[in-house]
Amino acid sequence: MSAPTRRVRIAICDYGAGNLHSLAKALTTGEDEVRIETDARIAADPSGTDLLVLPGVGGFGAAAERLAPARETIRRAVSNGMPILGICLGMQLFFDTSEEAAGEGLGLIEGRVRRLRARRVPQIGWNALMPDERNLASLRDAPSTVYYANSFVCEPSDATCVRAWSEHEGDRFPAFVVGGPASNVAGVQFHPEKSSADGVRFLRRVVERLCAGAVS
């Protein structure tokens, strides 16, 4: 008789960045518990959470200001092994600073956020997802194209954290990164919840691997 599947408790942090309900729908499988928590609640006590998700629609400065009271709590929880997933702006908040606005990111991955070097900004629509040559295994079964809505991209100090890239008007940028003390920090610049059924499946696989400690 096989052991019962453990119910994963997923908290989506509501820090005023929007896109909460479509993301919650994409993450809900019927087996896991998906809830939306305020940034104040996360700052007070992140226990009882198996995975923290930072969604992504909005500006870096306002989001960093909202998350400031929770910054050290989140950093401590991640250092102690809690996995965290960032989507679009949520991924950008993993980094130290952004050209978009003043403010301090979470500092979970060393580097900065910069503006896309392109004539057409923001980038809105579908774009190719290209696996990093050093990390091909991380992109098994990933969609070949994904949906973007962004004007800024991440620039890690060490590019070995990059698992996949995209390119907009000749500007190559990280699409999927993995870092943290136990590879428990994962971020995607695109919107998997808007990237059709393949994107949603990829999102759920990343969540499964993060919670199992198997993302690499």
Brief sketch in words of this structure:
The protein is an alpha/beta fold.
Give an account of the 3D structure.
The structure is a single chain. The chain is an alpha/beta fold. It has one domain: 3-Layer(aba) Sandwich (Rossmann fold), CATH 3.40.50. It starts with 8 loop residues before the first strand and ends with a helix. Strands 2-1-3-4-13-12-11-8 form an 8-stranded mixed β-sheet. The protein has a 3-stranded mixed β-sheet with strand order 5-6-10, with no helix packed on it. Strands 7-9 form a two-stranded antiparallel sheet. The model has no long low-confidence stretch (mean pLDDT 90).
Main CATH class: Alpha Beta
CATH topology: Rossmann fold
How many separate helices? 6
Poorly predicted runs are: none
Report the biggest beta sheet as strand number plus sense, adding barrel if it closes: 8 strands, mixed
Helical coverage, percent range:
10-25%
Order of helices and strands: EHEHEHHEHEEEEEEEEEH
Q: What integer value in Å does the Rg equal?
A: 16 Å
Assembly type of the shown chains? Answer: single chain
